[in-house]
């Protein structure tokens, strides 16, 4: 296969720089994108997770889960997208722990009710996600339950306790899970395929596309946008912290973090002494210590981030329907367009709907990623995949597309 080397400013002329990239031809372009995006299909679900920056030290912090649970009344379908940030510790723990917590709660509910009320399912999803994060808090408070004692301990004493990597790393893992963070987006479908629940915590997106009798696809947003740019979230935080106008600055909580709800991120949930004395003494530490010092001055009445998700229940009909779940990296690829979230969601649904009609749908998630990167513009897609920059030029992007009918 031939490749042509070209140069681009990536649309950022202010950098006064050109970066080399390779223009790929077909079929290499399609196969290389599938490889880089780790395209896969399982059951009724297509998945990709994409970060083209090649340095493994700052690798993709997105995760996804596709599970089928054979329970007493049939097979339940569980799907999830987790967008980790500041490191891999929290998001890896979410993948390992949260699905089993939700499954255990569902088994308990089904043992009491053969046909549980939809609101009961919503409750166990919300409760399990909050409980997961509360467990992170509990674990670190068991190590350091008293702020007065923390203030009396020396830095050396704290480092010895929390940086126990040579003796198994149990305490180090507890601290790291609180230091890092993750969004949570989960879906659950009952055995009859007649009910769908979506729980959202953070700014990942869930979009439902339903094909109506006239052949048009209808779009519904099933996730909340828990981000500092959301006026409702901003108002909620300001009301929870009266007299603290700086608790949201520049559309960021305490001027530092974009999401307003997440698991982990205990810098924004615990008193500042935990960050000053515990988290800042952990190894590996933070890569942005100066920013931490700035926002800690505004940490007066924590918590500032919520761990309570929103849950939506949808009654599914008999018509064709698709559920799109994605991290916010997919939405970021549309930043240059003057479109609302709903407008972008409509584009996704209509694009996949056309592919459903034509039956040209080998992997719906991969097709949607390709469209967002540039579609049939091979030059643009190649540039996004192969540009040789020394910093990341796009966010981690994960897409899970499930055919519900």
UniProtKB/TrEMBL annotation:
<dbReference type="Pfam" id="PF00481">
    <property type="entry name" value="PP2C"/>
</dbReference>
<dbReference type="InterPro" id="IPR036457">
    <property type="entry name" value="PPM-type-like_dom_sf"/>
</dbReference>
<dbReference type="GO" id="GO:0004722">
    <property type="term" value="F:protein serine/threonine phosphatase activity"/>
</dbReference>
<dbReference type="InterPro" id="IPR001932">
    <property type="entry name" value="PPM-type_phosphatase-like_dom"/>
</dbReference>
<dbReference type="InterPro" id="IPR015655">
    <property type="entry name" value="PP2C"/>
</dbReference>
<protein>
    <submittedName>
        <fullName>Protein phosphatase 2C C10F6.17c</fullName>
    </submittedName>
</protein>
<feature type="domain" description="PPM-type phosphatase">
    <location>
        <begin position="40"/>
        <end position="404"/>
    </location>
</feature>
